[in-house]
């Protein structure tokens, strides 16, 4: 559900850059007061890598001709709390846009709002109390389901506000919400399973053992790298829910061309120069090695970025 620049106007893109920037500043300031260096900072890195890896594995949606992939914003909120989750998911989206050309640079603010802000600051607070009390699997599934559905609605609103004539709001909303209701069912299942694996098995059973304090993080990292390097090779090649919706509305075209201009072209040029593994493959090639390398490199970059962000915030708080 990563939006391309062609789907939004410059005013909409700039507006959501501003909203997401303010949210990032707020999250950083609040995280200073809550950061637990011994636990949260390394978990920020490996949890971010885990989500990055899972997002590479598209799964086919039977009967639709489309595919979906895990989003992971609600899972991060469960594991890290809303402030750290927002910053980690924003880091994942930034890495994807800059180095893999997955999601546009102009649309980055929209993608951060849809995939990071909504699950962290809108949905997670609705379910936090009940999940904290008894770790209800139903509540976890429902939160993940709702997060993805609201994100799909927001994508439709952002394209509608952008005034793209080829993508009428009513049709876009109908198709986006229809296919993402199906994707959200799987999102919820993956979130429940991942939460049980990370929170209960890895952390609770091993974190209290001082001699093996780092082992759970290496366990999560190992699983992430295996998913990114191996399981990504078996990802569905069908268009994801957003691409499928645009394709069906426009009768076969991959994206609208009404919103093109200097700013769109400039950002496309910048992204082309920065992204060293566009579409998670070697430039000009389609070999599977490129996908594996992209998965491993991306996961490592996310770990470094998310963990460094945590340490910087922690250090700023001490000063």
UniProtKB/TrEMBL annotation:
Name the membrane topology term: Multi-pass membrane protein
Keyword Transport attached? yes
Keywords from UniProt, A to Z, are: Cell membrane, Membrane, Transmembrane, Transmembrane helix, Transport
Q: Which residues cross the membrane?
A: 40-61, 73-99, 105-127, 139-161, 173-197, 217-235, 289-313
Q: Which Gene3D superfamilies match?
A: 1.10.1760.20
Mind telling me which Pfam families this protein's record contains?
CbiM, PDGLE
Query: Which GO terms of type biological process are on file?
Result: transition metal ion transport
* InterPro entries named among the record's database cross-references: CbiM/NikMN, PDGLE_dom
Cellular component GO terms, alphabetically? plasma membrane
In which broad location class does this protein mainly occur, judging by the first location in its UniProt entry? Answer: membrane
State the signal peptide span. Answer: none
Q: What is the designated name of this protein?
A: Cobalamin biosynthesis protein CbiM
